[in-house]
């Protein structure tokens, strides 16, 4: 679903402890991370840890569906998206909403967007999208904005509030410069500065965009040219979480009050930085593919400055 | 021109014609650049005015070929090609607008 007003959104599910435990159980073998004093600590396999406190908000991140991709790395990207959505549908506690961090389609074809919507809508959750570079390659560069751009600014950026958390969706895949990385641009940065100006510094901030805002591996273009400027505007906020996709693997970094995290793709894995000739789709053994695809679940607990992020592979 | 150099030229033309086999009127001065592993090969190419250069994407990921204000391909899926004929001398820097770390240069003399 994409027919909602991005400016007003305030779900408040008030999950009970029991429900949280159920939710954690669903997460299976996902590893729960907690950030305390800027140091990430893995609490081991999910099931025991972090369930004692009530959760204020749980939402899901899916990314890089690449509907239309049919190459050897995964000839059935639609099928693996369907598996991921199937697992979301089976969650005992419904998350408040989903965010999709881009590359919905592989080639920006109308049929690819149609297929993605048909599957993703089965989760029966609001979905807040940001585009990937694969969503802007139709001839007239109009399909993404027609379908997902309602209530957004510029190439598709916006913000909304949910359960006291301020969410900011950014676009860093347009107007890229030769030799450069992802790009936000002056207009979007100015909008961001105004968007956060005057907000209480205790407001938890979640920023999501396709290409990592931090410098993961510039040699492969995995970073955002002016990402540091965006983060400058978020200095002083007690809790900032940056969620990205694009690199088709889980990576996490903590810098002061900022947690950076990238999600898996539901379509195909990409190699770890520098371990292959290029960042292109990585062909793995058929029985290993689903251990490298998946989604993420993010829980915010009021009174706790950290967001718990659980990455769950489709299998394993 | 000696017989030997004529023969060399003939071989060069034949090779170019094979490389540009999808073009209807392959001429000996036409050139092909392949895209493999997010890299334009050759990254720098020197051609004569009038040369048609064809880029062919052999990656499993779409790429584009863009030279600001000069030429711009649509997104090239796997095995798609794009051709541009250079009619004016100069240096043409280009890049992939989806993966801007991919850059190349055509020098037209």
Q: Quote the beta fraction of chain B.
A: 35-45%
Count of helices of chain A? 6
Tell me the Rg of chain B in angstroms: 14 Å
- The total beta strand count of chain A reads 13
Strand proportion of chain A: 15-25%
Large-scale geometry of chain B? globular
Give the termini distance of chain B in whole angstroms.
22 Å
Q: Using only CA atoms, what is the Rg of chain A?
A: 18 Å
Mean pLDDT of chain A: 86
CATH superfamily of chain B: Cupredoxins -  blue copper proteins
Helix content of chain B: 10-25%
Order of helices and strands of chain A: HEEEHEHEHEEHEHEEEEE
Any low-confidence stretches of chain B, pLDDT <50, length ≥5? 1-6, 8-18, 20-27
Corresponding CATH superfamily of chain A: Metallo-dependent phosphatases
Unreliable segments of chain A (pLDDT under 50, ≥5 consecutive)? Answer: 1-5, 7-54
How confident is the prediction overall: mean pLDDT of chain B?
Answer: 84
Give the strand line-up of the largest sheet of chain A.
2-1-13-12-3-4-5
Structural class of chain B: alpha/beta
Q: What's the CATH topology label of chain A?
A: Purple Acid Phosphatase, chain A, domain 2
Q: How many domain modules of chain A?
A: 1
**N-to-C span of chain A:** 29 Å
Give the tags:
heterodimer, A: alpha/beta, Purple Acid Phosphatase, chain A, domain 2, six-stranded mixed sheet, 6 helices, 13 strands, globular, B: 109 residues, alpha/beta, Immunoglobulin-like, four-stranded mixed sheet, disordered N terminus
Please tell me about this protein's structure.
- Chain A is α/β, with parallel strands linked by helices and 316 residues long.
- Chain A has one domain (17-313): Metallo-dependent phosphatases (Purple Acid Phosphatase, chain A, domain 2, 4-Layer Sandwich), CATH 3.60.21.
- Helices cover 18% and strands 22% of the residues of chain A.
- In chain A, the strands form 2 sheets. Chain A has a 7-stranded mixed β-sheet with strand order 2-1-13-12-3-4-5, with no helix packed on it. In chain A, strands 6-7-8-9-11-10 form a 6-stranded mixed β-sheet, with no helix packed on it.
- In chain A, helix 2 links the parallel strand 3 and strand 4 (98-100).
- Chain A starts with 16 loop residues before the first helix and ends with a strand.
- Residues 1-5 and 7-54 of chain A have low confidence and may be disordered.
- Chain B has one helix at 3-19, and strands at 31-36, 39-41, 44-47, 52-57, 66-67, 71-72, 81-85, 90-95, 103-108.
- Chain B has 109 residues and is of the alpha/beta class.
- Chain B is globular, with a radius of gyration of 14 Å.
- In chain B, strand 1 (31-36) and strand 2 form a beta hairpin.
- A 4-stranded mixed β-sheet of chain B has the order 2-1-4-7, with no helix packed on it. A 3-stranded mixed β-sheet of chain B has the order 3-9-8, with no helix packed on it. Chain B has a two-stranded antiparallel sheet with strand order 5-6.
